[in-house]
What does this fold into?
Amino acid sequence: MRNFCVARNKKYMQALTNRAKPVDRRPMTLLERAYLPAIFKGMSITFGHMFKKAPTISYPEKTRPFSPVFRGLQILNRDEQGRENCTACGLCAVACPAEAITMEAAERKAGEENLYREEKYAARFEINMLRCIFCGLCEEACPKDAIYLSETFAPANFQRKGFIYGKDDLLIPNPVTEPEAYAKAKGNRAAVKS
Ligand code: SF4
Ligand code: SF4
It folds into this structure.
């Protein structure tokens, strides 16, 4: 049995190490010495690529279409009257595997019914984008359709604190006062969801 294994190993070792390729040392023909066929072949490949559709895109002027399941920057949603949907229940923070969400709840006061849909709202809502892995679990956990992941990237920043997104950064524009900005922020992804 041992002899069989040794013989088999020798065979494999030979197969692995014996990779030498014999060099073709035939003298070049006149055509080959002129290099013209090789030059024309190379130029034909170059010109062929000139008339092909470029695979690159001029970002950010042009962007690729997103996948229907793309998950980007979070957005805090409002209802059709422009009131904040979030009730600061904390379910998104509990569901978040990266512990990226923090918030502070507050009671809605009389006269604030046009600002907050429910009696409780998030006075402070923060997402640490350096922690977020864009898994979408916060969106799935939310019972109020108050948070969803949009088709927008979290932009680059030079400072760590620039990646802590507060309510000002996350809240969708008001659909009553800023309908165009609202529609743009809502995007196609939200349309699929609703
Ligand atoms: S997308 Fe995932 S990681 Fe990011 S805040 Fe939501 S639950 Fe947390
Ligand atoms: S976003 Fe949704 S889950 Fe998170 S605190 Fe607000 S209502 Fe609750």
